[in-house]
Amino acid sequence: MHPFDIKTVLFAKHAQHVVLIHFPIALFIIGVLFDFLAQWKKQRLLAAAAYYNLLVAAIATIPVVATGILAWQWELEGQKLKGILLMHLVMGCASSALICVVWFIHRKSRRNQEEVLPGYRLPIEAVAVVIVALTGHLGGFLSGVNGPG
Amino acid sequence: MRRSVFIAGLAAALVLGMGLFGTGRKGSVTSAQEKSSTMEVKIDNFSFGPVELTVPVGTMVTWINRDDIPHTVVSTDDSKTFKSKVLDTDEKFSFTFSKAGTYPYFCSIHPKMTGKVIVQ
Fold first, then answer.
1. Could you give the dihedral angle defined by the CA atoms of residues A21, A24, A28 and A34, in that order, rounded to the nearest 10 degrees?
2. Which of A1, A13, A17, A18 to mutate: most B Cβ within 10 Å?
3. Which of A31, B90, B112, B114 pairs with B77 at a CA distance of 20 to 30 A?
4. pTM for the full model?
5. Residue A116 lies in a domain
């Protein structure tokens, strides 16, 4: 094993996807929580906290999607997926897209210097949290976090 | 006297018969083992069972996934001797070992899952 071989560093026994995935999940869920609180308490500080959490969550999806797709292509040689793996791939892509959409809605409002964020973002955020949670559940099931060792 | 001779003869015949039957069974088991050229490794609960398997050259080893989630079987030796596709529940992968040696392997989805086939 070569310590500077990118495949060795990123995958197999050093699988990074399962490590990196925690960042967008945590940042997005806390970002949505801040946004809901900001809406409820009418506090700009909470809205700003929500925005920056959502921004970093959207950025964090890039390496997560990249490592997930590369793991599929390198470790599984890009074979046709089915079952839980396919479901995880589809829901992972949907989650990433929704995280970016939610951040984009916030960014657009900030750019346009709108006083009030659009109300339709809240149901989108709620649906996104559910899909992110389901994707994470599938990922945890696949990675065997409840298995021995 | 005749009766006791008859009983002794019957007992001797029984002992001899049982001995022959036992030998025959033993022989049949041995020959079955000698003839057997397939071995099975069960994948269950995120582990390979048996973890270490010793087989003679020419043996075909079959891995069968009895777990609820997908697994792979990938050799970690330098020449990457064998690599399965993703095995869903109840799917199998077989490989025939034609060369002696030690073949460590793992599941590329769950790298903590490791096993070894020793071919003698």
1. 110
2. A13
3. B90
4. 0.74
5. yes
